[in-house]
Amino acid sequence: MANRKRKILWISGGVVLAVIVLIIAVLLFGVKALKPQIEAAASKSLGMDVRIRGGVSVSLFPVFGASLADITATKGGADVASMASLRIGLKFLPLVRGRAEITRLELVKPVISIVRQKNGKLNIETQGGQSSGNPLTVKKLSISQGSLRFTDLQSGGKIELEGVDITAADIFAGGTSPGDPIKALALTAEIQCRTIKAGTITLADAAMKVVGGKGIFDVSQARMRVFGGMGSATLHADFSGAEPHFRITCALSRLKIEELFQEPPNARNMEGPADFSADLTARGRSAVELKRSLSGQVSLNGENIKLNRIDLDGLISSLERSQNFNLVDVGGYFLAGPLGPALTRGYDFADLYKQSQGGKGIIAKLVSVWKVGNGVAEAVDVAMATKKQRLAMKGGLDFMNSRFENVVVAVLDQRGCSVYSQKIHGPFSRPAVDKISTMGSLARPLTNLLRSAKKLVAPGTCVVFYSGSVAAPQASKLP
């Protein structure tokens, strides 16, 4: 009992002494005298050069705290963070024990720049794999009008978040995981973000809930606007092991397909609503590693998509007169669905438009389902139907090596057998496109082949090319 009383008296004495020292420092030297001490302590804790360019104010009662303005943090001469103002409230007792317990933390207009160097290190990591300081706890955190910029020098990728508002509670950081700060972070947070830009994709009005600790984080109740539609998503991120791994699921409803294909408003070749879904896993620390390990499924489904400058039915009918038109132009641009934009950036599909300037049409139904594994997307159910014709695609898209893997686009008859087909293989940027094949032969003129094909296609004599979910149009003119 006596020891316990002595301990209480010792702690109380320490608290009182700390208060007295702080009061004396403020009264004798003013608040400005504390600025160098705060800068030095913050610089040591973060492993950065922290400077307070604005004013500093301290409140003693009823809550001990401080307000700082115009703060910057640099590392190696490069900007890492800045903020317009910071308000902080602290508990005395944990300070006496050598631990900072923050009752509240308010950040206004913070700008954080995270860079993954070419050697894989983050600019926020501490040197030598040492812990960045004593454990830190924050009861309540609020961030308003924040910005976050992540640049990956290994891959050239960049992610930018603007208009970030965060409300978080029960945050714990530091003290257990050297080198990698995310493994020593625990929190529960609600996040809103005005815009998120990742490459050529922009998300707007995003909101989500984040819960995590010990390197494992779950994002739920995520919603956002993207490609003109509304989306929902979940994310499971595990940083606890030697290699981070992720799983993301998302569903986008009523997106605008013209925005998915990133067509400018004054040159839109197609318009209409579509639904997108994905369930993907990946692992790795860089964009290259993530792409290599990507696995799962993605799909796009649309109906009644207007074609403003392309008459597909007319183009396919013209195959009886000419072989100048490439079927792969249709397959690459339309059938690849959610993967189409990646292809159209590399391969020139201009022939499709040269053959159909001024034409109009409609895609009654479009289905594009792909299985992804080890960076390669394999067609599972990829087809579309116009008013008169039906087309399908088989093969794979190797995004690790940017190559077509034995991709075949075919025009189908009522049974799903190929009437004409065409293969494409090789690099996305300069692929090899074979001649159009009818019934497997390339030896005779196309017009003669078409006549022979119509005679050969009899019940039970063809090999079905496609048997997926897109039905043949009733108005089909094919056999």
Features:
479 residues, alpha+beta, 2 domains, 10 helices, 22 strands, 19% helix
Question: How does this structure look, described?
Answer:
Mean pLDDT is 79; it is low at 7-20, 345-350 and 440-459. This protein starts with a helix and ends in a 23-residue tail after the last helix. The protein folds into 2 domains: 30-214, no CATH class; 258-456, no CATH class. β19 (390-398) and β20 (403-412) form a beta hairpin. It contains 10 helices and 22 strands. With 479 residues, the chain is of the alpha+beta class. It has a 22-stranded mixed β-sheet that branches. It is 19% helix and 46% strand. The longest helix is centred in the N-terminal third of the chain and has 28 residues, at 2-29. The chain has helices at 2-29, 34-46, 92-96, 257-260, 287-293, 312-317, 327-335, 340-344, 350-354, 446-456, and strands at 49-52, 56-59, 65-75, 78-90, 100-108, 111-116, 136-152, 157-173, 185-198, 201-213, 216-226, 229-238, 245-256, 270-271, 273-283, 295-307, 361-373, 376-385, 390-398, 403-412, 418-427, 432-433.
